[in-house]
Amino acid sequence: MSSMSPFENAMKQLKKSAEMLKLEPWITEALSNPQKIIDVHFRVKTKSGIRTFHGYRVQYNNSRGPFKGGIRFHPNVDIDEVKALSFWMTIKNAVCNVPFGGGKGGVTVDPKKLDKEELEALSRAYIKAIHSDIGSDVDIPAPDVYTTPEMMAWMADEFGKLRGKYDPAVITGKPLDKGGSIGRDNSTALGGVYVLEEAVKVYGIKEKTVAIQGFGNAGSWAAKILHERGYRIVAIADSRGEIINPEGIDVVKLAEFKEKTGSVLGFPGAKQTDKSIFETECSILIPAALENQITSENAGKIKAKLILELANGPTAPEADEILKGKTIIVPDVLANSGGVMGSYFEWVQNKKDERWDASKFDKELKTKITEAFNNLYFTSNQRRITLREAAYVVAVGRIADAMKGEKNA
Ligand code: NAD
Question: Counting CB atoms within 10 angstroms of each CB, which of 48, 308, 323, 377 has the fewest?
Fold first, then answer.
């Protein structure tokens, strides 16, 4: 693990871009803290009795539009992590140029230890605790690690009951029959693949072998889409371990296997290994699990030519330095921005009472994310900086422009 906390990492990235942009100090100061932290303890009736849970919603910055970002249910959720994630959302929404600021929420809980009824009670109680601070023009949550479309439906329903009117645009990532959008379920992965295809073209990467850390929403969809497009998935890790097959893993069968058994381990079409996923012989590495996974300890062992960061914050700044000039990193704020672009399309449809078809959604996603990639690629060449540095320069520049335009600034 990195010695720095995720939020310290995030602030390091902010300072670097502030220097490159020669940002006025008041802007850097304002961006060094979230605008608002909502910190709640709330009660939930579970099978083992009434329990109190700790939850957060961090509203980092809304200069470019309503706060927007997912909700995470995970035992390691703490205020530092949620702050970092909300800062990254602010940057990401500016990189992909959707009219949103950044926010993030989370509850410290192991959702695997709760049954469906308890998860529904938890989802509803969390929204009840934060409802006065969210709304379709104020702060719009979405799913993140270990939260699902079904949970989003419970939350949107609870919000509607509390406000006396159902407003689907308050939460994105909902199921289709509850105002969700076609294409949103795999938009993070598909957006990542569109970016990857541009990146391999411009950086001349011919070999198509891939290792993926994480086989949840982002990782398993990425595996499936890449498999369909002729990439060979040679290794996959989940929270329980890693499997490897240099000939290629049948990811469709693996998804069915994981659905039944709860893990990728024991899959007959691959071997279990104790080696870290990051040491795999492959040309493309996709971290799609949690933050701070690529560190100064393992960065030197990475053999991939390109890292596509589907997870948020998977690479610690020290690791970034080690990989500079050696491995191309397509940064999280671009690589996984298909998720929030999909959320934006869902929100637009809810607001205008429209229903897009799959081809419209796909066309909008491809156009918008390719434009974002080209913009960062251009900036990185022009300033001779990495794609991550370019992302921060572009995003912080856009946020600063919006802040300068505010009346109270
Ligand atoms: P998820 O809960 O669906 O899946 C997480 C996966 O990571 C699971 O397969 C789990 O087994 C695995 N995992 C957890 N700890 C691990 C470890 N130590 N080693 C290996 N694997 C581990 O979550 P998700 O929605 O796919 O999100 C994954 C990452 O992508 C997160 O960083 C999230 O913030 C980011 N992301 C997701 C979306 C989205 O739309 N789902 C959008 C943007 C960013």
Answer: 48
Evaluate: CB of 278 within 6 angstroms of ligand 1: no
pLDDT (mean) for 5-21: 91
Cβ(132) to ligand 1 under 6 A? no
Average pLDDT over residues 321-346: 96
pLDDT in tens, 288-314: 998 889 999 999 999 999 999 999 889
187-330 fold? Rossmann fold (3.40.50)
Cα distances (angstroms) measured from residue 104 to each of 37, 42, 79, 207? 10, 18, 10, 37
Which CATH fold would you assign to the domain 32-167? Answer: Rossmann fold (3.40.50)
pLDDT digits (tens, 9 = 90+) for 31-58: 999 999 999 999 999 999 999 999 999 9
Confidence check: pLDDT of 200 > 50: yes
Render pLDDT for 319-331 as a digit per residue (tens, 0 to 9): 999 999 999 999 9
Cβ of residue 244 lying under 6 Å from some atom of ligand 1:
no
Is residue 178 annotated as part of the catalytic site, yes or no? Answer: no
